[in-house]
């Protein structure tokens, strides 16, 4: 009789322990927000969860790349707009100097103003965002252009760092999707090999300054190619070239924003998929935990009574 009673007590105690184990497990799932802790618990779901987590991690990196790309695009576009505005100011000054109402002193004064504008222009083409030069190609730590001055300190032109000026910078914004986020100084201001030609922004503006400073008279033998009107035409062509690159930046910005929106939508979908793979149903977990706790408390109470009764039987 005592052996049978002992077995019954052991079985009852095991039942209580099982309920306690179930309750602890459910509480752990509630705390962690997931029902899978080791792959062996459900290999298929574990594989699905791991794959989804990998996708989410990749998307996080894509999102960082997009943010960096947007920052780069916005900074470059802002500086280019300032450059275009400055070129318009230079064009207006040159146009006023071409007016017959201006005398030699007026034009000399205009040339001084142009010289100040050129100094501003140099700062803009060598602009940086943080510690990265915007128009230096992939050479973001080195100024893209070096200033050439005469003995009096007046700017005569700029020379490009040709080793890096044409380098393109890409950001990966999706699976197998790389996007160029920079515009290069050679395409904007001074094409490689064009130093000192009509395609060179700095040659055009410094020559325009010099012509106007010479009472709007080009040097002998260069009456056409260094005239005020001809140089302003070249300035206009360069401005159109820069505007084309601004348009490209605009299209890059739109594509980055579109991918950013797509990634946010995908994050919601992948998060839902991850929760399904991990078997998370908070409402169900709370309900099951409450039931387990109720059953466990009831069994524990019964166990206390049985233990007391068994002790009385043994003594009798």
Describe the structure.
The protein is mainly α. Helices cover 66% and strands 8% of the residues. It has a domain at 54-271: f41 fragment of flagellin, N-terminal domain (Up-down Bundle). A hairpin with a 2-residue loop joins strand 1 and strand 2. Helix 2 runs antiparallel to helix 6. The radius of gyration is 38 Å and the shape is rod-shaped. The model is unreliable at 311-316 (pLDDT under 50).
Q: Report the major sheet.
A: 2 strands, antiparallel
Q: What distance separates the N and C termini?
A: 13 Å
- Order of helices and strands, N to C? HHHEEEEEEHHHH
Average pLDDT number: 85
- Beta-strand share of residues: 5-15%
Q: CATH topology of the domain at 54-271, which one?
A: f41 fragment of flagellin, N-terminal domain
Radius of gyration: 38 Å
CATH superfamily of the domain at 54-271: f41 fragment of flagellin, N-terminal domain
Q: Given the structure, what is the number of helices?
A: 7
- How many E strands? 6
Present the secondary structure layout.
Blueprint (H helix, E strand, L loop, with lengths): L1 H31 L10 H55 L6 H22 L2 E2 L2 E2 L11 E5 L5 E6 L9 E5 L2 E4 L4 H4 L12 H13 L14 H50 L4 H34 L1
Antiparallel strand pairs: 1-2, 3-4, 5-6
Helix pairs in contact: 1-7, 2-3, 2-6, 3-5, 5-6
């Amino acid at each position: 009789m005592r052996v049978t009673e002992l077995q019954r007590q052991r079985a009852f105690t095991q039942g209580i322990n099982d309920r306690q184990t179930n309750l602890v497990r459910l509480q752990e799932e509630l705390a962690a927000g997931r029902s899978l802790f080791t792959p062996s618990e459900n290999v298929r779901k574990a594989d699905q969860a791991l794959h989804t987590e990998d996708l989410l991690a990749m998307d996080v990196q894509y999102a960082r790349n997009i943010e960096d790309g947007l920052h780069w695009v916005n900074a470059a576009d802002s500086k280019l707009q300032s450059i275009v505005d400055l070129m318009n100011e230079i064009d207006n000054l040159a146009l006023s100097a071409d007016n017959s109402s201006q005398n030699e002193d007026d034009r000399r004064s205009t040339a001084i103003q142009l010289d100040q504008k050129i100094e501003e222009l140099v700062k803009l083409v060598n602009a940086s965002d943080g510690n990265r030069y915007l128009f230096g190609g992939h050479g973001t730590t080195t100024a893209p252009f070096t200033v050439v001055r005469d003995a009096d300190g007046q700017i005569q032109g700029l020379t490009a760092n040709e080793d890096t000026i044409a380098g393109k910078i890409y950001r990966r914004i999706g699976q197998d999707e790389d996007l160029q986020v920079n515009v290069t100084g050679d395409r904007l201001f001074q094409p490689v090999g064009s130093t000192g030609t009509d395609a060179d922004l700095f040659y055009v503006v410094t020559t325009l300054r010099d012509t106007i400073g010479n009472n709007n008279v080009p040097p002998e033998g260069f009456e056409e190619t260094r005239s005020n009107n001809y140089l302003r035409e070249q300035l206009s062509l360069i401005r159109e070239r820069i505007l084309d690159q601004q348009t490209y930046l605009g299209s890059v910005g739109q594509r980055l924003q579109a991918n950013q929106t797509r990634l946010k939508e995908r994050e919601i979908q992948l998060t839902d998929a991850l929760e399904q793979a991990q078997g998370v149903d908070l409402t169900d977990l709370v309900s099951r935990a409450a039931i387990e706790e109720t059953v466990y408390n009831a069994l524990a109470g019964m166990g206390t009574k049985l233990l007391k009764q068994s002790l009385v039987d043994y003594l009798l």
